[in-house]
Structures are given as C-alpha cells and as structure tokens.
Predict the structure of histidine kinase.
Amino acid sequence: MRADPIQRAIDEDLVRVLYAQDPIAFFSHWFSIAVLVAIYWPHVPSPPLFIACFGFYAAANCAGLALWICNRRYPQLVSPRDWIYLHALRGVLLYSGPGFAIWFAFQSPQTDLPLLHTVMLVTLAAGVFMSNGFDLLNFSTSIPFLLLPSIVLHFGSHTFDRTILAIVLAFFFCAINVYAMSYRKLFRQVVQARVDQQYLAESLAAQKHVAEEASLAKTRFFAAASHDLRQPLHAIGLLAASLNDPAATPAQHVKTAGHIVYNVEALNQLFNQVLDLARIESGVTQVIRLHFRLSELFERVGSQYRPQAAAKGLALRIAPTSLVVYDDPVLLERVLSNLLSNSVRYTEEGAIWLGLRHAGRSKGGFIEVRDSGIGIAPEEHEQIFEEFYQVANPQRDARQGHGLGLPTVKRLVALLGGELQLRSAPGRGSVFRFQVQAGDPGGIVASLNDSVAGGPAAQGRYVLCIDDDPSILEGLSTLLARWGCNVRGARDENEALTALEGGFAPDAVLCDYQLANHRTGAQALTAVRGALARAGRGNVVTLLITGDMASAELASLALQGIPVLHKPVTPARLRRTLEMLWQQAELDRGRPAGAPALRDDALVGGVDSGALQTLQTLQMQALQKDAAASTVATGGAATKSSPPRATH
Ligand code: ADP
C-alpha cells in the first residue's frame, strides 16, 4: 500500500539530487575536454576520428546542459521517473566520450598518456559515485562506459604494470559498485524516514482538524441546547414568581400553573430528545429485531399522524404492502414517527405518502416517506442532519421543533444497518428513504397491533426508595403514597438493608445512581437484591434512576437486567414503568431463567406510549420463546439465542 507513495517520493528526491549536481559536472566535463584536446592534439594519429569523438563529447555535454535547463524550467513536463531515464541517457552519452577517448592515449608514442588519462577517468568516476551513486540506473549507465574501455585496453597491452593497473581498476570498479549499493540503501532509508514523518505530520494535522471540528460541533450543540433549555426555564421562573403576586386571582393562579406545566412538559420533551440522541451516540441503544408485517407498523404510525394531517387538509396515504420485515419495530416506529411528523409540519397542501418501494429488489426494499411540502434546498441537505439545525427558525421558536428529529432519525437508521437518503428541492416536496431487510412470515410471533392488558395497579404495593437527597426522597415518597403505595425511604444501602432485616418486604426497589460516600446505585441494588434473594424474594422489581449517560457501570447493569430510568422522570413515566415491570415480574414467574429483561428504550425517551409497550411485550414474548427453545444460561446471564436486553 505504502510502496507507491514512497517510490514516488524517492523518485522526486532523486530527480532533485541528480539534476542539482549537473552544473558542476558540466564545468568539469568542459575542463576535461580542454585538457584532453590540448594533450592529444599534437600526437593524434587520426584527426577525423579525434574530431568526431571530441565533437560527440562536447555535444553530449551541451545536451546535458539543455536537459538541466529544461528540468529547471519545466519540472512537470514529464514524470519524475522519466526525468531519471533522461538523465541516465545523458550519462551514457556524456561518459562514453572520455571513456572511449583513452584509445587515443594508447595510440600515442607517449607511454605515460594512458596512465594520465586513467587518473582523469578515476576522478570522473569518483564524481559519478558522488552525484549518481544513489540511483542504480544512472550509476550503471555511467560507470561502465567510463571505466570498462580503460580496463580492457590496459589488459590488452600485455605488460606487467598495465595488467596490475587493469586489476586495480577492475577492483575499483567492483568496490565503487558495492559502495554505491549501500549508498542507495541509505538514501532510500532517509527518504522513507522523511516520507513517514510527512505522513505523521499530515495525519496529525488531519486528526487535529477532526478534533477541532468535533469541538466546534460540541460548542454549537451546547450553545443551541442551552438556548433551547433556557427558554422554558426562563418562562417557568417568571411564571413561578408571578404566583407570589398577592393581587392575582385564583383563576389567574390556575392559568399560570397551567403555563408552568406546559413549559415543564416542553423542557421535558427537549431533554428526552437530547437523551435519545445521546443514548444512540453512546451505543447504549440496542437493536432487537423481530419478524413482523410492515403494513401493521405503517398502520400504527399512520393512525397517529392522520388526524394532524387531516386538520391541515392533507391526505396521508399509506401504500399497501404484504412484506414481512426483520427489523426492530420500536426503533423503526421512532424513525417513521419523526419523518411523518416533519412531513405534516412542513407540508401545506397536497399529500403525504408512506410506503415500500422494492426498487428492483426481490427481497426487502426501501421505506419511503414522501411529501408535497416546502422542500429543502440542496445546500441544506447535509446541514439538516446536524443537531439543532433548522432551516427557517432563526428566532428558535420551540413550537417549530428543535432540530433534533433528523439527526436522531439518521443515527437510528444507521443503527438499523441502513442509510438515510434524501431527495428534495424547494417547492417540490421531499422524499426520505432507507432500506429494510425482508423477514420470514413463519417467524412472526404476534400482530404488532394486539392490545396488551394494562399493568397491575400501584395500589397497596410496598416500595423501598433509596436516595441520599432528602428532598427527592420526600418527593418520591409523597408521590408513591398518593398512588396508594406503602413507602419506606432509605438514605443509603445500609438503611435499605436495615429496613429489609426489619421485615419490610418491598414489591419494588427504586434507587438513585449517585449515592453518598462514593457508592453507586448499582452497588446498593446488588446488596439489596442479594438480601432479597436470600429471603426467597428474587423477583422483586428493581429500578435505577440516573442522570448519568454512558458510564461503564450502566453497561454492566444491562447484563444484570436492571432497568434504568433517566432523569428527569415524570410521575406518569415512573408509574407506567413500575406497572410494566410488575406486569413483567408476573410473566416472569412462568419464565425460564436467563430470559431477557425489559428493554430500556421502552422506559425512556419522549415517545414511550402504549404502542411501545405493546411492541415491547411482543419483543419480550419473542425472546422468551427463543430462550425457551434454546439452552439458557442460569443466573440471568444472556445466551446466544437471547441477547442481553437494552437495559444499562
Ligand atoms: P425540526 O423539524 O424539529 O426542526 P428536524 O431535525 O426534524 O428538526 O429537521 C431539521 C430541519 O429540516 C427542519 O427545521 C426543516 O427545515 C427541515 N425539514 C425536515 N423535514 C422536512 C420536510 N419533510 N420538508 C421540508 N423540510 C424539512
């Protein structure tokens, strides 16, 4: 993978170094031409041959100079490799001139001329080693032309000292080649180190850029979140202050209280949306796939949005489909709800269409939500998937949403293994679509629209609450007592254990996650569950309430099957959750060990509704069926056929 960039970097460096030496070579060659001509001319046996040879040498030197100028002026004219080839060709031409010219020395009556010429050739060879030694091609096309004619002629003279000189020259020829080899290796290592350093610097710069972008995105996220959170808080503050006004009538107080509740609800909804996103981001949200009829899911979400669409005079059309899909109905419902709610919000006339397109696929297809609304400009197609981004809500009016729907949808679709696609243009409506897998009709456990019996009532239940904050403990106890529960409060696990030892037998244990003295709710619940198990009451409902998002301990709670509620918890959600857990505990009595616990997604988030409970129950039933059919592990551990549930 890395060979090509390194080879290219080596080539580029080679070109730079090879051509950088050329001006020196140019002058030394003119010098040698001048010296050789001056020495040989008086004794030349064959002037035309001499002129041809030295003319060729001079011409080659000029060609070398032209090549150098060309390289300096137009470095991009050919590739680095081609510049290397051209330089090698120049080497052949340039060094064959002085190399073959030694023949004239052997023709001369002056016996010391061959020796003189040889000294000059060795000097030139040393220059070639220095300037071309780090490239095999340039080196091997220069040195042989320079030295081999001389070695051959010295051998051919059959005198003792010339033969010795030929041997020395041959040795020099071999040695210079060996040195050039290690020279090349060293050069390659230097270039490789430089390239590695360059890569490192580039990747560090890229990582820095990503980190800066992430930090900017985070800043934008917090700026928008804090603005949207402050708005209702500000309103609540003002409204609460006006409750103290002695001049206000009871009717005005009731109205103000209504506004406060409305703003608290708005705040809660926003928190839930942020929480949903954070849960998906932190990888806590689990996908639990079922085989189910897509038409049933379409009908469920369709029926939720039909009244809103009708109120705006829009037709909500659902295309019939017989496809059975294998997907997570709870997450899929959340995706479709978000998309349909946007379609209704951003369409003023025409229709909204929800359906499946096979798009040439024999199995599965694309779920499409299409509307004839205001559409989205192409330059906004990426930004609308950023948190808190809204196309046309500069005053950030909370009634127009918060810009969290599409980021959530995109992440959920990715979590389900698909990719959210968008086709839209201003005034031409929008199409959101993503792929779904076909399921097996034989794998359907029950209809998504089967109704589920309401959970067992809270009346008369015994509840143990553990929280180190006295005001929360007080609030929780008052609330539960209002529902008819018998409540015992404990500030820590010791007080809770003392209550159990004193004979308090709870139907449910509610525990805060962060307790005093660096203890966690997980530790307290483990101790309490242990005590309950020893007392033969292993199926007591336990529920952890946390403001934490992604601690490792929350993940381990998932394995223990402890459900988690995220703050802020509304009374309605707490009650619904407790009722669901009591209902599940009743189901559990006839369930094998290790069967899955309740899915956390049904417990948190702004969309938990009766519909989700229905789906949740179906999922539980399906997984119970799986668990019963397979060998299950004991002690609540998850098995291959019954994956750990989405509790934290
Ligand atoms: P919200 O709808 O709460 O503002 P979203 O994240 O769901 O937040 O959408 C982000 C932006 O994308 C919206 O403000 C809106 O401008 C645009 N948008 C989303 N869905 C549609 C749609 N179906 N038609 C036109 N614009 C849309």
